[in-house]
Amino acid sequence: MKTEDLKLIVKEKYNEIALQTNNQNENSCCGTGSSCCGVDYTIFSESYEKLKGYNSDADLGLGCGLPTEYAKIKEGDTVIDLGSGAGNDCFVARAIVGEKGLVIGIDMTEAMIQKARENTDKLGFNNVQFRLGDIENMPVTAKKADVVISNCVLNLVPDKQKAFSEIFRVLKCNGHFSISDVVLSGKLPENIIKEAEMYAGCVSGAIQKDEYIKMIENSGFINIQIQKEKQIVIPDDILLKYLTSKELDEFKESNTGIFSVTVYAEKPVAI
Fold first, then answer.
1. Which pTM was predicted?
2. pLDDT averaged per 10 residues, the chain (length 271)
3. What is the 3-state secondary structure (H, E, C) of 72-86?
4. pLDDT score recorded for residue 194
5. What are the CA-CA distances from residue 203 to residues 60, 153, 155, 178, 235 (Å)?
6. What sign does the dihedral 55-58-60-63 (CA atoms) show?
7. Could you give the angle at which helices 110-123 and 88-97 cross, rounded to 10 degrees?
8. Cα–Cα distance between 155 and 6 in angstroms, integer?
9. In a designed cystine with 41, which of 32, 176, 234, 254 is the match (CB 3.0 to 4.6 A)?
10. Rounded distance, CA 59 to CA 109, Å?
11. CB within 8 A of 4, min separation 6: which ones?
12. What pLDDT score does 123 carry?
């Protein structure tokens, strides 16, 4: 698919999720806890409930890790969250940076930005901002952030190399990122790769783990580390919507792995 088509698929899916109430989201066919029209996002997500700053209204269950837990955020830092959704990771980051820090969320979906701003108003924060924009061309000046975080979003970006270059641009020298994302080991079946729902569900847009790390290196980052890794198993009933029984058996025998990883890297001091 063309880049514009992929972005439209993502915007439409996440716009739909943003416009639902939490109750509708949990119970509807296209909610984050449902697999009847795509991936069940709860397969990927982890619980934020024990983290300081957690706000249930901002938690849509769309992540695949807890990047704020590994991001080495300090009081007073400026943090940028890529694909900020309803604000979940931003509010957790804000609890760490405190009153003197700044948190900027960037999202390409208008309804998500609106929902995040409504949540911010309810919480009364004046140092959390949400900006409508594209991760491949961020509405942020260069060398703005001490830390960049993101949770299960870069796999949805068509030009991942450009996205990492943008992360490098907006980070201060000696700044760093901690990003949770979905990567692969092995090849997905062609029917999964071509399926729009599986792209929006964070599966078919994922790339090989080695390629992912290489893109980070190519963007100029150093001290690259995988902070956490876990395998994700997609239930057969979801895969059988796109594969025949024979294709499913072949996929299982191929030992292809789908993984949630949290990756850390630093921007060098002298740039």
1. 0.88
2. 76 80 46 46 73 88 89 98 95 97 96 96 96 96 98 90 97 97 87 69 79 97 96 86 90 88 94 62
3. CCCCCCEEEEECCCC
4. 74
5. 18, 11, 8, 20, 13
6. negative
7. 40
8. 11
9. 32
10. 16
11. none
12. 95
Q: What share of the chain is helix, strand, coil (3-state, %, to 5)?
A: 40, 25, 40
Domain 3-266 architecture: 3-Layer(aba) Sandwich (3.40)
Residues 6+ apart with CB under 8 A from 21: none
Measured between its terminal Cα atoms, the distance across the chain in Å is 36
Q: Which helix (H) or strand (E) holds 230?
A: strand 222-232
Contact 172, 146 (CB under 8 A): yes
Q: What pLDDT score was predicted for residue 166?
A: 98
DSSP symbols for 145-164:
EEEEEEES-GGG-S-HHHHH
DSSP class of 65: S
> Tokens for 107?
């999202």
Partner residues linked to 145 by β-bridges: 171
> Please, where are the H alpha helices in 28-126?
67-70, 88-97, 110-123
Please give the single-letter amino acid code of residue 147: V
**Residue 74, token pair as written in the block:** 């300090």
Backbone angles phi, psi at 102, to 5 degrees: -140, 135
Cβ 104 vs Cβ 80: under 8 Å? yes
**Closest among 28, 54, 48 to 40, alpha carbons compared:** 28
